[in-house]
Design goal:
This protein is an all-alpha fold. The protein has one domain. About 85% of the residues lie in helices and about 0% in strands. Keywords: Coiled coil.
């Protein structure tokens, strides 16, 4: 019985380790996404400053809405990085 319990525990631990390792592998992609979105926010600011109208086929109602959406994405990615740091400390 104890051996079966140990095997179950080992399987759970191995699954968690795999989850942590996969999260750490995603870190580089997350950092790249943050860079891309930061560039998008800079582009939005340039468009606003230049007085460029938002394209008619845009998914956003305004530059402000687009910027808010981009800032939320960055916040989400930073949260993911914090989670990865926590995972890394477990290894």
């Amino acid at each position: 019985m104890a051996t079966e319990d140990n095997q179950v525990i080992l399987a759970v631990v191995q699954k968690e380790i795999e989850k942590v390792e996969n999260a750490i592998k995603r870190e580089k992609a997350i950092l790249k996404n943050i860079d891309d979105i930061t560039a998008t926010i800079e582009h939005i600011a340039e468009q606003i400053e230049a007085g460029t109208p938002l394209p008619e086929n845009s998914a956003y109602e305004s530059y402000g809405e687009w910027q808010t959406s981009a800032e939320k994405e960055i916040k989400s990615y930073h949260s993911s990085l914090e989670t990865i740091d926590k995972y890394r400390s477990l290894l």
